[in-house]
Every structure is written in structure tokens, then in C-alpha cells.
Specification:
The chain is α+β, with helices and mostly antiparallel strands. The chain has helices at about 1-35, 40, and strands spanning about 45-60, 60-75, 80, 85-90, 95-105, 105-110, 115-125, 130-140, 145-155, 160-170, 175-185, 200, 205-210. It is globular and about 50 Å long.
């Protein structure tokens, strides 16, 4: 009987020791299999929208309308991102339409109401001047358009100017290319008695003021 009692005690102690090692291991295995919080979800947008419009104001007046394909709003960053195309209409302080811009992507900085457009940006003024670049920023407070990227300006008569860096009012009337790299005049024909130049280039000052 004493021998049986000793055996039972030995088995009980062995089981207790085994449980101390096995149970925490099992608990650890179970925890490892639980899905961790997604970093993407934690840093994801607070709001999303599709095929709608955002109105940008300045001193209580409409300064721009931003139409978008897809929008993501990030409150912590104070930014709204547009990643499926944007089309922006700009207005002056009198409420008159001045220019139109399209791009593949864009950003709205909520602290300043500035708008940045990038990837295949095309801006066109109501006066007929077209500006092309890969990145442009519209400054709401001064209502100016700026970029440090390469730009191409096309005038209504077809003349083109190129260069690095650009600044202008949003009407594209008073502008300057910071580092001009030349100009290409439109093709034109002269009377047959005179040689017909097909194309000319000029190093004229890359700026326009009215």
C-alpha cells in the first residue's frame, strides 16, 4: 500500500511539473496565431469619397472647386489625398472663373487650403495659355501657382517656352520661368518668293507681364 501511495505521489508531481511547462507553451502558441492589428488600418483614412467635389474658400469666398475620382481624408495629417484624377476650377476674389487644372493625383492641405497637383498636370487659363508640368502647387493666400519642376508654356498663337521652375498668378497672365531653356515658335508660312522657315528657336526672356 505504501508503494502504491509513493507511485501516486510521483505521478502527481510529474504531471504538475509537466503542466507548468506545457500550458504556457500552448498559450504562447495560441497568442502567436492571433492576427496582429493591421498597420494599414491604424494609419488609414478617416473618410473616403468617390466621384464628388470639394469646395475651397478664402475669406468666406469660393476660391476653387476640386472634382475628384477618389478621396481619402487624413485628420491627423490635416490632408486630403486624391488618387484617381482631379479637375480644379479656380476663381478670383470677385468670383470670376480664371483657370482650369487637371492632374492624375493631388493633395489638399487643410491648414492653408493650398492645393498641390502632380503627375501629368495641365493648367489652362481662360485667356488661352496652357501650362504643363509634373507638379504644381496653388497657394490659396496669395492665389499664385508655383513649381520647381520643369514646365512648358504654350501661348494661344502656338509659341512654346520651356524651363525649370515657375511662378504665376492663377490667371497665368503675369508669370516667369526661373531657369528658361529656350522657346519654340509656331510653324508659319511666308510668300513663295521668300524662304519658308519651318521652325525657329529663340532665347527671349521667359516671362510675361501685363
Amino acid at each position: 500500500m505504501t508503494r502504491n501511495f509513493i507511485k501516486k505521489n510521483l505521478w502527481g508531481k510529474a504531471f504538475g511539473i509537466l503542466a507548468l511547462y506545457v500550458l504556457p507553451a500552448c498559450i504562447g502558441c495560441q497568442s502567436a496565431q492571433e492576427p496582429a492589428p493591421s498597420a494599414t488600418n491604424a494609419e488609414g483614412p478617416d473618410q473616403e469619397g468617390w466621384n464628388s467635389k470639394v469646395t475651397v474658400t478664402s475669406n468666406g469666398k469660393i476660391a476653387a472647386h476640386v472634382q475628384y475620382g477618389h478621396m481619402e481624408k487624413y485628420s491627423k495629417k490635416h490632408q486630403t489625398q486624391f488618387d484617381e484624377g482631379i479637375a480644379v476650377d479656380f476663381y478670383n476674389t470677385k468670383g470670376e472663373h480664371t483657370s482650369f487644372l487637371t492632374a492624375e493625383k493631388g493633395l489638399l492641405f487643410e491648414d492653408t487650403n493650398d492645393v498641390e497637383a502632380y503627375e501629368n498636370v495641365v493648367a489652362k487659363s481662360d485667356s488661352g495659355i496652357t501650362l504643363r508640368s509634373q507638379r504644381l502647387k496653388w497657394l490659396n493666400r496669395t492665389q499664385r501657382i508655383v513649381t520647381d519642376d520643369f514646365v512648358t508654356i504654350t501661348r494661344p498663337n502656338g509659341d512654346m517656352l520651356h524651363g525649370q521652375g515657375f511662378e504665376s498668378d492663377q490667371n497665368l497672365k503675369n508669370w516667369i520661368i526661373k531657369k528658361p531653356s529656350g522657346a519654340t515658335q509656331r510653324k508659319f508660312e511666308l510668300p513663295r518668293s521668300t524662304p519658308r522657315p519651318l521652325e525657329q528657336t529663340a532665347d527671349s526672356s521667359a516671362q510675361q507681364r501685363e
